[in-house]
Design a protein that fits this description.
The chain is α+β, with helices and mostly antiparallel strands. It has one domain: Endonuclease I-creI (Roll), CATH 3.10.28.10. It has five helices and four strands; from the N terminus they run αββαββααα. Strands 1-2-4-3 form a four-stranded antiparallel β-sheet. Strand 1 and strand 2 form a beta hairpin. Helix 3 packs across helix 4 and helix 4 packs antiparallel against helix 5. It is globular.
């Protein structure tokens, strides 16, 4: 008998990566407990449309990627429920990054940095050791990229093919 899970098509992987690029986050969360700082990889996609969430979780299930779905109430003027599909921690984020990295565009640098950080922490069981200066530097680079200060994206300006009309 064949594989019981339906195969994922390449366009579906691209669809998932596109959502991560446009509506997602790749970061290293910083939290503390018992006077010690912990850094933890975090990948998430956010949205409000239920059919979109269902489509994304269907793709994730068929890909075998670990995730959790949580719900938030959006702040501000628009009080709508917002879903969050997330993977937290070293072992959960690895399959996301390995699978989606070739398809990412705008979040590619953050994904590469997160993957570099994870590889460093998992090598030689370094999770028991203090963070190295290189690892802390990677965390800072991701933080800068998430603020838009480290992005390679340039501001779009109308060119000769898209003139602005002044009347």
């Amino acid at each position: 008998m064949g594989n019981p899970q339906p195969k994922v098509q390449e366009w579906e992987v691209g669809y998932l990566a596109g959502f991560l690029d446009g509506e997602g986050s790749i970061m290293i969360n910083r939290h503390s407990a018992k006077r010690k700082v912990y850094l933890e990889p975090y990948v998430a996609i956010y949205g409000t449309d239920i059919p979109t969430k269902d489509k994304l979780t269907d793709i994730l299930d068929r890909m075998g990627l670990p995730y959790y779905v949580g719900w938030d109430t959006k702040s501000g003027y628009q009080k709508r429920k917002c879903w969050r599909i997330k993977a937290v921690g070293y072992k959960r984020c690895v399959p996301w990054l390995v699978t989606l990295l070739p398809y990412l565009t705008t979040k590619r640098v953050r994904a590469e940095l997160a993957w570099k950080y994870i590889r460093s922490r998992l090598s030689n069981d370094s999770r028991q050791n203090p963070y190295t200066p290189e690892e802390l530097s990677i965390v800072d680079e991701i933080r800068l990229a998430n603020r838009g200060l480290g992005s390679e994206t340039t501001r779009w300006e109308p060119g000769p093919f898209y003139p602005i009309r002044v009347e």
